[in-house]
Design a protein that fits this description.
The chain is of the alpha+beta class and 73 residues long. The protein has helices spanning 7-19, 24-32, 59-71; strands spanning 2-6, 48-52. It has a two-stranded antiparallel sheet. The termini are far apart. The mean pLDDT is 93.
Length: 73
Amino acid sequence: MKIKIWVEWYDILLKLSKDKRTTLEGIIKEIMNTKDCINLPEINVTKKKEINVNLNYTEKEVLEKIEKYLFCD
């Protein structure tokens, strides 16, 4: 499925996936199955980037979970 996430979130997730030696999809799957968060400060977002992921969640669920994971909101 295709989802649109903020470019800034994408960059953070890409860095996390490289640090954990996994794929972007792998880090998103991990985020979807955890209650942890990394408590980053809020960032200004500019535009969205479309990515392909193979998940059984809606785009809204994925975006909410990523936001919660990154910023503990």
